[in-house]
Amino acid sequence: MTTLNTVWQQFTLQNLLIYQWRNTSILYRLTGVLHQWRQGSWLLQWGEPLGALLITIVFGLAPFVGTALIGVLLIACAAWWLLLTLTDEPSQTAFTPIHLIVLLYWGIATIATALSPVKMAALSGWIKLTLYLILFALMSRILRSPKIRSIFITIFLLTALIVSVYGLRQWFSGVEALATWVDPTSPQSKLTRVYSYLDNPNLLAGYLLPAVGLSLASFFVWRGILPKALALTMIVVNSSCLVLTFSRGGWIGLVLLIFAFAILLLYWLSIQFSPFWRQWALPLGLTGLTVFLLFAVLFVPPVRDRVASIFAGRGDSSNNFRINVWMSVIEMIKDRPILGIGPGNVAFNKIYPLYMQPRYTALSAYSVILEITVETGIIGLSCFLWLLTVTFNQGWVQLKRLRELGNSQGFWLMAAISTLVGMLGHGLVDTVWYRPQVNTLWWLMIALIASYYQPKPQILSDEVQTD
């Protein structure tokens, strides 16, 4: 058991001595080269608050503006991160095992771009990926401050509440579909699916998953009757709006998110339980959630019909479309299994027509796992799975630490972990994950987990190594 535990800690980089890696990294030595200039700069004395303002603008405007403006804001975030990094003290630069795997994934994507059969198209996707990863680096640095973290999450939740309220208004007033979102031959052909400001119900569902997770956490973090009432309102409104998108992938993600959050919450609270409830709280709680979901499926006709369509196979036109796309994408992967065709939807749109079945055009692989594999090959997929393993392990380690301390900031960590689970569930059957309104939220959840990282003290690490 000890050997297995040691192997697991090495695989998840749990005992990685970051300072040793920094001392031998040529890239890392670039940090702080302009540190002397920063000491005399009035503007850079406000580096973290201004960085927080930038990322707040990104997430505050994302649901309401086009992708071009989001791209400009991401470039601004990248420039600010670079400026902070070059002028920072090397000892204070935020770097975690998660950063290391993210950097490795970026390197794989870079090689895939260089070897792509459509290099210029792949370069476009590589630039977008680079901007997302730099946003992650900036957020993981800025959100280390509990105060900034709480303020930022509050602003995001208020933004999501506006989006959800408008979605509920669409439900009550009725709204026409902007695309064929429901099988026209099914009983749900006249179904109203809300899309709010995002113009697509599946995209709205992907956007609201993090809002549901963080609003659940806010109920336990915020103090006072009014803040808790606001948190409860957010939970109900965000969840209701997500359900009314009738996005089957979104529903899968919501169920997984709620179950993951319930498990983590019961673990957190179990330290105060009696021996009986410590043993039975989890199975009884999960059983209750399962019964509630079954009642919803059995006795709410729109929900029942929509869930039944998941298991209709090719009998549902949406399912049939995805299956045909998946088959074509698998053929693409077979032809370039090692490093794929390069990142981005532009590269995908150049190659996919050579493999697609007649009448089944697609802008993506409709599955995150397939999309990553077709873009960066088996090597990229392996790195992505490693990133997930390291991220979840770091989240669990820090959650245990905060539980022992009784620090309520751990609830944000629960939300981040459970939201990642939900977004992965949604991503198995859709690729709204790649739209900037959702992709930025994915990296926000990973950045939240990375922001809790506590490196081992250098002296203590040296002593352990000597022993």
TrEMBL record:
Q: What is this protein called?
A: O-antigen polymerase
Membrane topology of this protein: Multi-pass membrane protein
Residues forming the O-antigen ligase-related domain are 235-385
Instruction: Give one Pfam family, short name only.
Output: Wzy_C
Q: Which organism is it from?
A: Planktothrix serta PCC 8927
**InterPro entries listed in its UniProt record:** Inorganic_carbon_transpt, O-antigen_ligase-rel_domated, WaaL-like
Q: Where in the cell is it found?
A: Membrane
Membrane spanning residue stretches: 50-83, 95-115, 121-139, 151-168, 204-222, 252-269, 281-300, 363-389, 410-428
- Alphabetic keyword roster: Membrane, Transmembrane, Transmembrane helix
Q: Which GO terms describe its cellular component?
A: membrane
What superkingdom does the record give? Bacteria
